[in-house]
Design brief:
It is built from 17 helices and 19 strands. The chain is an alpha/beta fold and 464 residues long. A hairpin with an 8-residue loop joins strand 8 and strand 9 (243-244). Helix 6 (120-129) packs parallel to helix 7 (144-157).
């Protein structure tokens, strides 16, 4: 197959099912996705190769050919280059600090975006504009407005976009629980509790020099320009890199509203998503209509929804947000619960708790020995938008080859993220928020102002 034919083939993934029948598909993660010449395989560029990014790259390796990596911290790129499970053995990965270099390459078909949350949508939109298929880690958006932007871009550019909410692909836990709820095995669902855990707190973090390997200005991106802050670095002897106990960057970005949404979005992207998936409340224009903070505590003082100190983590560490739907269904998004991390479904005919690794409750106990007969493969395939059930990343690659929506698509994920963002806004303001899921507007000017954020000049998100 010539290079031109290959590009035409990949660009017409919606009609590629006919080609798949002539080329065998291998479901094993240790086999290439298609048994064809290496020159015809999907080629990926990985944007963001910190711990999570390298993990995703290792998972994709063999399903695609990883040819380039990008990170604003060159130390991460070095670690990716040295990883024998990223890229083709013996081949040298191209490295870039500027993600646009990857998007410019016509030989790259797919990108993974595993950056900090506040960079996701800008890169993802530009990747779609460049004709790339996109895998982007959760939480996909920083604001409700970003959800509107990426939803429009996906409709316009018609590429395959998979969100990294892999809980949807956990067949024996969250997918099974979803089928049980939809089949009415708990009766009418009246209440759900999403235990997402609480954010950490810390003392004042001193100003420090940014690491020589890190492009601090680029890392900040659309966020306000601020000083780099970090506690003294530590190293446990098992890592190549040393890291500060507290900072704004890398893993700790999650605990700053400037770059993320704390546990509301970090784990809410999993549990809130799967809860709404189970009750089929992820359609456009659907969702809670009221967000009430029963508990909302932050590690720093707040005024009018903004932290009054800028040198400590600021996302809520203690919270319980009551989300009410028009039909009376209630969902709590909480930092803790009696049942622990996971989702508790309470219906008129029973209660059930699902988490990573287990389902407990009488409705499950009643069917645990024969649930495979009750729910044959066809039922799980329906949750997969008609695709055969596979691993999360295999599903993404299959959709590129055959067309169709992946199991964790942008449109339903944006709906889940709206509930997460509005829960965070209610916590920040410390009062009830009224929401219209059809118009995607709140009931007052102050809360509506949190739907979008000002983007720093030069880092604006494209809307074209």
């Amino acid at each position: 197959m010539s290079k031109t034919t290959r590009r035409d083939f990949l660009k017409q993934s919606a009609i590629a099912a006919s080609a798949v029948s002539a080329v065998p598909y291998f479901m094993s993660s240790e086999q290439p996705v298609l048994a064809q010449q290496a020159s015809d395989r999907l080629r990926m560029g990985c944007i963001g190769v910190g711990d999570m990014g390298r993990g995703d790259a290792r998972d994709f390796n063999g399903k695609v050919d990883i040819v380039a990596v990008c990170d604003v911290d060159s130390l991460h790129m070095d670690m990716a280059q040295e990883d024998n499970n990223i890229g083709r053995r013996g081949a040298t990965l191209d490295t870039y600090k500027d993600y646009r270099k990857i998007l410019e390459r016509n030989d790259i078909d797919v990108v993974s975006v595993v950056t900090t949350d506040h960079w996701h949508i800008k890169i993802a939109v530009e990747a779609l504009q460049a004709g790339k298929h996109v895998f982007c880690q959760k939480p996909l958006t920083l604001t409700v407005e970003e959800g509107q932007i990426i939803r429009a871009a996906c409709k316009k550019y018609n590429k395959v976009f998979q969100v990294g909410t892999q809980q949807r692909s956990q067949r024996n836990e969250f997918a099974l629980a979803t089928l049980m709820v939809r089949k009415g095995m708990l009766g009418k669902i009246e209440k759900m509790t999403c235990d997402v855990g609480g954010s950490p707190t810390c003392g004042p973090i001193p100003k420090a020099a940014a690491p020589a390997t890190l492009d601090w200005n680029m890392w900040l991106g659309q966020a306000p320009l601020v000083d780099y802050i970090a506690t003294p670095e530590v190293n446990d002897g098992n890592r190549k890199d040393a890291w500060p106990r507290n900072s704004r960057t890398h893993y700790e970005f999650r605990w700053w509203y400037e770059y993320s949404g704390g546990k509301f979005t970090d784990w809410g992207a999993h549990h809130v998503d799967c809860a709404l998936w189970a009750v089929d409340m992820l359609g456009e224009g659907v969702g809670p209509i009221k967000f009430e903070p029963i508990v909302a505590e932050h590690p720093v003082p707040y005024k009018d929804g903004y932290p009054t100190e800028d040198n400590r983590y600021n996302t809520s560490h203690r919270f319980d947000i009551k989300c009410t739907f028009e039909n009376g269904l209630v969902m709590h998004v909480a930092d803790r619960s009696r049942d622990g991390n996971g989702i508790l479904f309470e219906g008129t005919e029973g209660r059930m708790h699902v988490s990573r690794g287990r389902i407990v409750g009488k409705p499950f106990e009643d069917i645990k020995d024969n649930w495979r007969e009750i729910f044959p493969d066809e039922e799980f395939n329906k949750l997969c938008n008609g695709k055969r059930w596979q691993g999360h990343k295999d599903n993404f690659v299959t959709c590129i080859r055959e067309g169709g929506l992946p199991i964790s698509d942008v449109f339903t994920h944006v709906q889940a993220m709206n509930s997460c963002h509005l829960s965070a806004i209610a916590a920040r303001l410390g009062r009830e928020i009224v929401w219209d899921p059809k118009t995607e507007k709140t009931g007052d000017a102050q809360s509506q102002a949190f739907i979008a954020r000002e983007q720093r000049k030069g880092y604006e998100i494209s809307r074209s």
